[in-house]
Specification:
The chain is mostly helical. About 45% of the residues lie in helices and about 5% in strands.
């Protein structure tokens, strides 16, 4: 199987520790973290993805807001510049140890944080990165 992620969730998954908007959102995200840690590939999509799914039934879901779309574009550009490969809709990414290490190093250094602008979770993620990503749920397969 493949996990469908929008570009800014390529950043969010680096620091996910089991906290989220709602209980349903968090439970869904934990299941996705398990799948990614088991080695499932990522298919980058435009707009709402597998992580967004529990939020889509809510009125005014932020997953559909223009600010989130802008976050996707900024994250996409940052990840593409870092990795030298496509990170937009249709791109396939393997979340292996090398990918996660490269992304986490760049995240810690602030090099790919453009996609985090105006995100309410940014302070939490900054703290997680500062801790060396202690307690994150997306880990390299077999890690």
């Amino acid at each position: 199987m493949t996990v469908r992620l929008r570009p800014h969730h390529l950043l969010c998954m680096l620091t996910f520790i089991g906290k989220g908007y709602t209980e349903a959102f968090t439970e869904n995200y934990v299941r996705i973290a398990v799948r990614l840690s088991a080695g499932e590939d990522i298919l980058v999509v435009e707009g709402p993805d597998d992580i967004c799914a529990p939020m889509l039934g809510e009125a005014g879901s932020h997953c559909l807001c223009e600010t989130v779309t802008e976050r996707d574009l900024r994250a996409r550009r940052a990840v593409e510049a870092l990795l030298g490969m496509p990170a937009g809709p249709g791109a396939s990414i393997r979340p292996d140890a090398e990918f996660l290490a490269t992304m986490r190093e760049a995240f810690s250094a602030g090099a790919i944080r453009n996609g985090c602008v105006r995100c309410e979770w940014s302070p939490l993620c900054t703290g997680i990165a500062a801790s060396g990503f202690d307690g994150v749920l997306v880990v390299p397969p077999g890690g």
